[in-house]
Amino acid sequence: MNDDIERVLYSQTDIADACARLGKQLSGDYEGKVPVVLSVLSGAVFFTTDVMRQMNTYTQLDFIDVSSYHGGTKSSGEVQLVTDISRDVSGRDVLIIEDIVDTGRTLKFIIDLLKDRHAKSVKVCTLLDKPTGRVLEAKADYVGFVVPNEFVVGYGLDYKGEYRNLPYVGVLKPKIYMDK
Questions:
Q1: What pLDDT shows up at residue 33?
Q2: Which among 119, 117, 97, 103 is positioned nearest to 40, based on CA atoms?
Q3: Is 29 a catalytic residue?
Q4: How many whole angstroms separate alpha carbon 171 and alpha carbon 149?
Q5: Residues of the chain whose pLDDT is less than 70?
Q6: CA nearest neighbour of 49 among 97, 103, 85, 113
Q7: CB 123 within 8 A of CB 141
Q8: Which listed residue (50, 93, 102, 158) is catalytic?
Q9: Quick one: fold of 18-149?
Q10: pLDDT of residue 114
């Protein structure tokens, strides 16, 4: 797998430092509250657990699975709800944890869903923000790193379900996804 990576953008140490920074900030911002932490499957699982372990506040964890990439390198433009959240968010503070905010479609879909369900507040924490990829207005409140407009994998991010288990975030060599 490592041979498929053009270059490492963020090392394990970089990611751990970002998780500690974000966890500390979230602890302060959610002091005295019990937010529903909504991890976006499957990409955000690693980031969610690492950030939550750095938070010194009560939380409740839930999951949602939505997809617009369907295994490819570009968004299809259509967001599908694959797995819905299991708890009622009406009147609750919700913190969405994402792996990457790219086109904004997925994030807007989830935010709209939570607002329709009368969440008290909705904030977004993302490992990676790719503002050059935006098609819809979408803003993360907490950002680990701003990433260049390249196809990245690792630490939860995948290509066709692979590379999620890399302990870093790297740029996938174009020949890997161009040949398939």
A1: 97
A2: 97
A3: no
A4: 10
A5: 69-76, 179-180
A6: 97
A7: yes
A8: 102
A9: Rossmann fold (3.40.50)
A10: 98
